[in-house]
Amino acid sequence: MNYKDAHTHNLKSAHESIYIVPLDNVPSSLPTHFAMGIHPWYLDKTSLEQLEQIIQKYKPSILGECGLDKHCDASLEEQKLIFEKQLNLATEQQINKLVVHNVGHHNEIIKILKESSFSGKIMFHDYSGNQDQTEQYEKHFDSFYSLGARLFNTQTKLVQNIETLPLDKILLETDDQTHYKLDEIYSQAAKLLKIPLRELVEHVEQNFNAFIV
Ligand SMILES: [Zn+2]
Q: How far is the CA of 175 from the centre of ligand 1 (A)?
């Protein structure tokens, strides 16, 4: 079956995927779909000036992953500032797709995105929102929700609310873990969504294509 991986850090992925490029070690050959941005964990590794140069050189069609993380060393204020500046950079460089990393800061993310000039598609990777938050993302943005290893933790609000996610916006991902393979993530998602695997594969393929165009 035609599995798509919406978010991977593995350059050698066997699937059509979106590769998150390590900015301090850009591979000499990049896959068709890749994203470049400053992750909130690594704010001190790459400056905005360096990111701008990297973007001009490699011309990614997707900016990310960028966002906010409550488990970061950097202060929330600093994270917000760098996130906002990356949104401006995406607009300036005419990049119309974004991959957002968000751990524990839904309200701040919504506020910053609403106030920013960015108006393209947004993939919320490792999505963890509840129904209210999804409703807000749906109302304000052209949103996609990428799900991965979190699907195996049935105590999470994501799993408890999974049937409220729009099927035409769901993506699936391996991210940086190797414990669960992509086909296991698809099977788990199909089980939780209570739809046949084949039907889910078709939806995710369409959604992946809708995101990357
Ligand atoms: Zn990632």
A: 5
* Domain boundaries of the chain, sorted by first residue: 4-212
Q: Per CATH, which fold does 4-212 belong to?
A: TIM Barrel (3.20.20)
> Measured in angstroms, how far is the CA atom of residue 64 from the centroid of ligand 1?
9
- Say how many Å lie between the CA of residue 8 and the centre of ligand 1: 6
CA of 20 to the centre of ligand 1 (A): 7
Question: What spacing in Å lies between the alpha carbon of 195 and ligand 1's midpoint?
Answer: 27
3-state SS track over the chain: CCCEEEEECCCCCCCEEEEECCCCCCCCCCCCCEEECCCHHHCCCCCHHHHHHHHHHHCCCEEEEEEEECCCCCCHHHHHHHHHHHHHHHHHCCCCEEEEEEECCHHHHHHHHHHCCCCCEEEEECCCCCHHHHHHHHHHCEEEEEECHHHHCCCCHHHHCHHHCCHHHEEECCECCCCCCHHHHHHHHHHHHCCCHHHHHHHHHHHHHHHHC
- The predicted-structure confidence for 73-128, as pLDDT tens digits, reads as follows 999 999 999 999 999 999 999 999 999 999 999 999 999 999 999 999 999 999 99
Instruction: With 0.85 as the threshold, say if the pTM is over it.
Output: yes
